[in-house]
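name: query_chain
kind: protein
chains: 1
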Amino acid sequence: MMYPMVLSKHPLLRSTLGLCLLAAPLCPITPPLRAAEPSATPAQSAQNPDLFRKENLAAWCIVPFDRAKRSPEERAAMLEKIGIRKFVHDYRSEHVPLFEEELLALKKHGIELTGWMFPAGMNAMAESTLALFDKHGVKPQLWIIKGGGPVKADSPEDQLKRVQAEVRGLAPVAKAAAERGLQIGLYNHGGWYGEPENQIEIIEALRKEGFTNVGIVYNLHHGHGHLSRFKEMLAQMKPYLLCLNLNGMDIQGDSKGRKILPIGVGTEDRTVLQIIRESGYTGLIGILNHTGEDAELRLLDNLDGLAWINGQLQGKPAGEPPVYRTWKAVPKQP
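structure:
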């Protein structure tokens, strides 16, 4: 049972909600995940395909972050060309009128709409977006980003109020999503809401309200502060995890001008990917642009870097690192 370890990091352990949650069994939002066999070799079997295979990768942060400023048609064609068949949509105000055009272009090029950045509450934007999904028969995960400051230190009451407030805000979205067979992913973007332990408390509280369609979308580029405990934290998140977005990682890279790096450039990449690969997680993996670079070139850099590191994890010689298109610095050996 992993959940007592999670609650032990928070003063909520002493609260009524904390005691209730400790008594509640975990209820994964996806079928149970098999742990890696102790005797497993580095190579993946046909029954347990490679987690980092291209078919399991989704492109993220390539709509507002793209030097080429591609149209929906150009973006879908680009994804088809480089062989990424899953896509998560993020947007700014100028992209809102193009939502339906985006869905039509994805369908034309055989790209699955895997996820969608979604409002944190049921408003006009949320309603119109869901109506569009209904019209076109798509069922993306709804990725929800929220802000907010920390709770008062050593205050179970403040923690409980915050969890309850988040549940009240998210419940209408969870209800609308559940009616359509959609899942919600709480997206770590820093702050109190972005801490996985707090997200798990919110999810468990939502489950007590009957909503079992809420999970976590974890982003390494917002997780530099988690690196020292990443293995343990991933084990806690795994029953709730909908998608894990990769990034090149340095210790404290976010404070040293190295927050977002191509995979393979970061000093911790081999260690981090090995932890993920051996964790038993079998869900979706995301790769991103999230820079001012050309989205196609950064995606290709991430594909190359991921293949380079993953090959080493499978026992292949490291060889020379990739020649990156969007990164000029000499990458360090992991």
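note: The two ends are 33 Å apart (CA to CA).
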